[in-house]
Amino acid sequence: MSRDAFSNRHPAVNFAFFLVVICCAVVIQHPAYLAVGIFSGAAYYLLLRGRKGLRGIAGMLPIFLILSLLNPLFNTYGAHILFHIFGRPYTLEALLYGFAIGGTFLEMLLWFGCCNQVLTSDKFTALFGNLIPALSLLLVMVLRLIPSFLRKAAQLAGARKSIGKGAAEGDTAKEKLTDGMAILGALTSWALEGSIVTADSMRSRGYGTAKRSSFQIYRLTGEDFRLLVWMGLLLAALLFLGNTQSHFTPVLEIAPVQGQNALGLAAYGAFALLPTALHTKEAIAWHISRSGI
């Protein structure tokens, strides 16, 4: 994982930021706010993942287009008919609503991808280990299950290929299915065995027999506190100045971006771009300090 300036902040700062941007991605469908959210999420996603991020975004775009273009096939509301398909009107309002739905989904994928990179299991445990110890442990184990499954599956596939039992190019669908079922069976056995070993290990260490102690390596610094205050001010500006009203069907009604709403949009942009701006600021300071040596 690429370490950046925002990832090094206290877990409470990371959690508060992602909680706000993901909630905004869910509830706001105003095109201008969607564009700002997608741009900010994509910028931070690329900063965290580099070239892998480009491939990730390339994989998200077809989903965005499919959701956008298919919506008018099921939702025929709207006053402006572009054309008819299968005897049903394909309206401009439904198409724009489809773009809003696709944009919302794309923005959520981007922010959840960033959150997965920044809010690691140790940060999640540090945040909620004392408040909800059992649930935090369960969530951490679930979150690490899929990545560990994928790594183990890749190892098993490589091992089978090395001994000549893996699926190869040109094999029939039945042979590939047989190979996949063999890997799945081995994965299931590995997971069950691992759960038994984990349960025995936790029992032998006395888990659940007494009140659990905890060790906290994260400390809320003055810079973290100032960052939280700044985030709170930007969020307040968004709530009091922003107007995210948007209706797509049956008549298109979108709040204009002017006056107070423009200030609210600027506050939202400043909030969403905070991790990227923080990293850029520290990167510039680092290069300046190096050039002075």
Largest sheet: 2 strands, antiparallel
The residue fraction in helices comes out at: over 70%
Number of strand elements:
4
Number of domains: 2
Multimer state? single chain
Low-confidence stretches: none
**What's the gyration radius in Å?**
24 Å
- Range of strand content: under 5%
> Can you list the strand order of the major beta sheet?
1-2
SSE string: HHHEEHHHHHEEHH
What is the count of DSSP helices, taking H or I runs of 4+ residues? 10
The global form is globular
> How does the helix and strand content classify structurally?
mainly alpha
Distance between termini? 29 Å
Average pLDDT rating: 85
Question: What are the defining features of this structure?
Answer:
293 residues; mainly alpha; two-stranded antiparallel sheet; two-stranded antiparallel ribbon; 4 strands; 71% helix
